[in-house]
Specification:
By secondary structure, this protein is an alpha+beta fold. The chain has five helices and eleven strands; from the N terminus they run αααβββββββββαββα. The chain starts with about 20 loop residues before the first helix and ends with a helix.
Length: about 260
């Protein structure tokens, strides 16, 4: 985009003209809204990296699903660690970097490491645990472990509840505040598929001779139209529409 002259920021004089925006930012916003229903300000590095994969012209989609990016990252990290480690006694079972492919139900933390549990099964101890899911929807219980005077281990909740009566401490144990992400609105993408349809070209300000295969919107467009993308996915009038909420019949009748 730099070579095409699409600068990151608007010149100061264009900011004084009403209706002026950054074409570069609008392109990025449309792409991110289509794939994630999130504007640029709400994107993270992994999601943005996935969205930009197709811009190279060599990769349009990942066969088998985007989740394979995580698998590839883990394999590469394992290879880098193995090549840098001179101790060949480390077995595959005890690799420092591993992907636990079981449903984790409990995480128990002490001063040094974290234990992962799947029901009654101990999945091992780890220095770092990455939770690639919204905490409030993960259905995982988090505990901290401390030693009592008699040597027994005492488990306490790791996080304080969003309840004024239960905030601060429990049994003398200081609780950590919940991450701010747990109070954020959960982003959803609703997919609507229609068949035997024809786009209302006049509604979108298009000519019937020049209807594109896909229509993307900016952040303002999402607010006005209630959609993030509209694409033709078949030759017989089959269209797919992405939106933040379920579309009404009135909206669909406006589009098609």
């Amino acid at each position: 985009l730099d070579t095409l002259g699409m600068k990151r920021n608007l010149p100061w004089w264009r900011r004084l003209i009403p209706g002026q925006g950054s074409f570069r930012m609008e392109l990025s916003t449309a792409m991110n809204l289509c794939n994630n229903n999130q504007p640029n300000s709400q994107m993270n590095g992994m999601s943005g990296f996935t969205n930009y994969m197709s811009t190279t012209g060599q990769i349009f989609s990942i066969e088998g699903g985007n989740y394979q990016l995580i698998h590839s990252a883990i394999r590469q990290a394992q290879a880098l660690y193995d090549n840098a480690n001179c101790d060949n006694r480390i077995s595959d079972v005890n690799k420092r970097i591993s992907h636990v492919q079981k449903k984790v139900t409990n995480v128990i933390s002490d001063s040094d490491q974290m234990e992962l549990w799947s029901g009654e099964e101990n999945l091992g101890r780890f220095d770092i645990v990455i939770l690639a899911a919204p905490l409030q929807f993960s259905e995982i219980s988090f505990f901290t472990k401390s030693k009592l005077d008699d040597g027994e281990a005492d488990l306490q909740p790791m996080f304080e509840l969003n309840d004024s009566e239960n905030m601060g401490s429990e049994g003398g144990h200081e609780l950590s505040p919940l991450p701010t992400s747990t109070s954020m609105h959960y982003t959803q993408v609703v997919t609507t598929v229609v068949s035997n349809a024809t786009i209302q070209s006049q509604y979108f300000g298009l000519s019937e001779r020049n209807i594109p295969k896909s229509i993307y919107v900016t952040e303002r467009g999402r607010e006005v139209e209630g959609i993030t993308a509209l694409s033709r996915i078949g030759v017989n009038g089959v269209y797919k529409v992405f939106s933040p909420e379920k579309l009404s019949d009135e909206q669909l009748n406006s589009f098609f």
